[in-house]
Amino acid sequence: MHTYTPHLTRFKMWSPVAISVELRLYSEGVDGKVVARYNLEVAGEGWWRLNVYQDLKGLFYTYRVQTAEGWLDETTGVFATAVGVNGMRAAIVDLAATNPDGWEQDQRPPVCSPVIYELHHRDFSISHSSGVRNKGRFLALTERGTRSPEGLPTGIDHLVELGVTHVQLLPSFDFSSIDETQKNVPHYNWGYDPQNYNVPEGSYATDANTPEVRIKEFKLMVKALHDAGLRVILDVVYNHVANVANSAFERTVPGYFFRHRTDGSLANGSGCGNETASEQPMMRHFIVESVAFWAKEYHIDGFRFDLMALHDRQTMQAVVDRLCEIDSSICVYGEGWAAETPLLPAAQCMTKKNIHKVKGLAAFGDELRDALRGPFYDDTKGGFLFGNRSTLPLLKLGLAGMVYYPELGNSGLSAWAKSPLQVLSYVSCHDDLCLVDRLRAVSPQLFDEEVARLSLLAHTAVLTAQGTPFLFAGEELLRQKRGVRNSYRSVDTVNAIDWRSKAKHFGVFTYLRRLIEMRKAHPAFRLTTAAQVKKYLHFLDVGDACTVAFTLNGKAVGDAWGRIVVVLNAERKAVDVCVPEGDYTVVCRDGRVQLSNREHEVRTAFSAPPQSALIAWSST
Ligand code: CA
User: Is the overall model pTM greater than 0.85, yes or no?
Assistant: First the structure.
């Protein structure tokens, strides 16, 4: 890493195995000749440092490490904060000079009821129908007033209208799979192939050759989202790198940053050819300081850890603690699993099962997802949405925010969260089939209307579940991905959100928008402790129907709705559900949400229409 001032640039790197370290300065980000070479000085405990008393702004650099075995290849160093095109050389920039106007006044928007929205830069804006100028770029998320061909809000305006509170960006750090020099060639990748962790990806910038541009545009994006009241979460992928041999880690301290099997081969819990070793003190230090850098330099508000089970608990605790020092409202969550078994004792892995041991950390609740749509391992198997009653216990556990509730009994299911704040409720994300494709994969003969009804039913479960709701971008427009399960490098026609769908499925969009509004207004949907769930969430007896019904005691948590009844009916027929006697107001029925309804119905039972949700409240 380097620290720049006009009269002095300080360089610092860690390599205890080095016998010498050379710094090479270049005038270009690729090619061109070395303009100067320096040797770093030993600084103790494996650190090397160098002060160059010149104005080096605009130059590029690499390190070369010499070990007892010889010279390693050139590297940017593990903590490069700016790079040239394709991330081959680090760049000397004045980070302060990249700050957009008003950056010092930029603030994290207040949030009391988070709703996370996961998007990929290119998916979100590349279609002509987005009306966005900077299609597929960071700057797409700075544009206001963008409209679909039908005149409906797109881009940021759409997010504001929908009412989500956090935008989770698919990998936006520098990844290796896209050639940044081919600016006008259509290219696509999710970006789970990390190269430089502390630099924004060049292909999302308007100019990948000028190192400051991607940094400034990233900050403009964060500021515009903040100004719109939206928080920004980065998807971070510290669990593996794109290519070990080319990685800054391996070219700095060979072997140190990765786990190896006893035969010396690379462990592969990521399924991508390697797994990093978070238990190594300097790898842990790197992860902790990397997220801290994004939180401070880029004002990032949260982190989604990819394959978090590959990291050890101590590291994730350190991440949470470090971010909490910066701002206690920064959120941290991740995938509580790995692709393959990690080379780390199970008790240390940051799996869902261990999540209760790390306060302030959350994980994805794939139980709710699988209960609703069907299992991960077979796209043609259906869950609750298809009338599969065997998923009801799992669905209830998901609705309860993955904490113990009395009806759970000895079902054998694991209530892994210590509080509902530790779980993200969702039915789809960038991985696997999107919801519409999954519905059709299970049941190809579904009518369009049925697909819409079942989508609304699924999203009602997500938005009435305890925990933090998480939506995959475009689901509110009944997005389709042509049945492609792993679209990580598919063409735009598979991945792009078609904004014309907003007019076509405006009823679906409106339904979700109103449910989000309802959730934000009613704390009963956002219980904060397992004890509250146990006391205030009660499942109702619905006989043998593929239906779930529950009540929430709103009064106990200061909710204006004293008692709330939610019925999720997956049957193709109406189902009668007995409820506590009361004077009810129905706000959601048969695929429509009407929060302003004032009509009263004195009830001891409701008839829940087929394949839809019913939500009613009474004052007591
Ligand atoms: Ca890149």
Answer: yes
